[in-house]
Write a structure and sequence with these properties.
alpha+beta, Uridine Diphospho-n-acetylenolpyruvylglucosamine Reductase, domain 3, 17 strands, about 25% strand
Length: about 350
């Protein structure tokens, strides 16, 4: 079956749902079904077979691929040309797809130093909630100017349309990576992260696992050797494995039972006043917390620090995300513009 036929079939399924007043749950690799609120739709719209790279010119540092393409396959193709997805997304043992990754807006440890998934989005093709196929942005960086509608698709959990294909900017793979590790307290780690963020070091990772602060440097080997002499910490021979396992959430912290919260705040030196086991990433801007505290307390603490909290994993997702009234109204208006009949993933982003 040709991919054009699959795209047409997806459009026909959406048109049928529009006609009958039905709703659809968009599914790719289904590796992130745990994320977000409860989707009320029972019928699946499966994009997994709508896969494959459409265009890739290494010299242009841009790749265009269909939404069902697996992140692992894209990464392998790019690696053959010493390039990579700069936002370092997880591939969840090879099951994560491009569409699902962008819909969730997932980025890895490199995100604060290279950019988020949204920052690398150049253009996309979608099916909106009326069954229309729309194109936004372009396939080269110079075509992206003004307000880029394609970036609204990133993090929307499929509520603004079915992503058919996306064009992303890619980055060269660094010549080498070097990880430095030092034992410290959370307060010391936050202070060190804050100090490093204001310096022109070639940082590409900064995380604290409750025992060790690890700093990843990326660039030319001679330059990293010189920089390492000026920074505290010992070279960690298992550094590459740590960053891989952190990205894929395979380190011990993520195996703990209980509710896992993902808290985004401005980088600061103050620990959050919350009870539970934590892990810091993104130079302190991303704080993972395993806790039994009530959702209201988590949301309040995040808001007090100018950020927000998401119940990433847990049995009760009824209060998984809170937005202030202005932001909530804006988000709902965007959804109404793209999906006025709430065909896509009802309940996944908003109750």
């Amino acid at each position: 079956m040709h991919d054009l036929d699959i795209g047409t079939q997806l459009q026909q399924q959406v048109l049928q749902a529009v006609e009958t007043g039905g709703a659809l749950r968009i599914v790719g690799g289904d590796s992130k079904a745990f994320y977000g609120g409860h989707c009320a739709a029972e019928a699946w719209l499966n994009t997994a077979d709508h896969c494959g790279v459409i265009d890739y010119q290494p010299s242009e540092q841009v790749i265009t691929a269909r939404a069902g393409s697996r992140i692992a396959d894209i990464a392998e193709l790019l690696a053959g040309h010493r390039q990579m997805l700069g936002f370092e997304p997880p591939d969840y043992t090879g099951q994560a797809t491009l569409g699902g990754t962008l819909a969730c807006g997932f980025s890895g440890p490199r995100r604060p130093f290279a950019g988020s998934a949204r920052d690398f989005m150049l253009g996309c093709k979608i099916i909106n909630g009326r069954g229309q196929i729309l194109n936004f942005g372009g396939r080269v960086m110079k075509n992206v100017a003004g307000f880029d509608v394609s970036r609204l698709m990133v993090g929307a959990l499929g509520t603004t349309g079915v992503l058919l294909e996306a064009s992303l900017r890619v980055l060269p793979v660094p010549e080498t990576d070097l990880t430095l590790a030092c034992a410290c307290t959370e307060q010391q780690a936050l202070s060190r992260m804050q100090q490093l963020s204001g310096q022109p070091w070639p940082l590409s990772g900064s995380a604290y696992d409750g025992e060790y602060l690890r700093i990843r440097l990326s660039g030319a080997e001679t330059a990293l050797t010189a920089v390492a002499k000026q920074l505290a910490g010992d070279a960690d021979p298992a550094g590459d494995r740590f960053w891989h396992d952190l990205r894929e959430q395979r380190i011990g912290f993520f195996q703990l039972p209980g509710t896992l919260w993902r808290i985004s705040v401005a980088p600061a030196t103050a620990p959050l006043d919350l009870v539970g086991r934590g892990l810091l990433d993104w130079g302190g801007a991303l704080r993972w917390l395993n806790t039994d505290m009530p959702a209201a307390a988590i949301h309040a603490a995040a808001a007090a620090h100018g950020g927000h909290a998401i119940c990433y994993r847990g049995e009760d997702k009824s209060d998984w995300l809170r937005l202030d009234s202005d932001l909530l109204g804006l988000q709902q208006n965007i959804r109404l513009a793209f999906d006025p009949l709430s065909v896509f993933n009802p309940g996944r982003l908003f109750s």
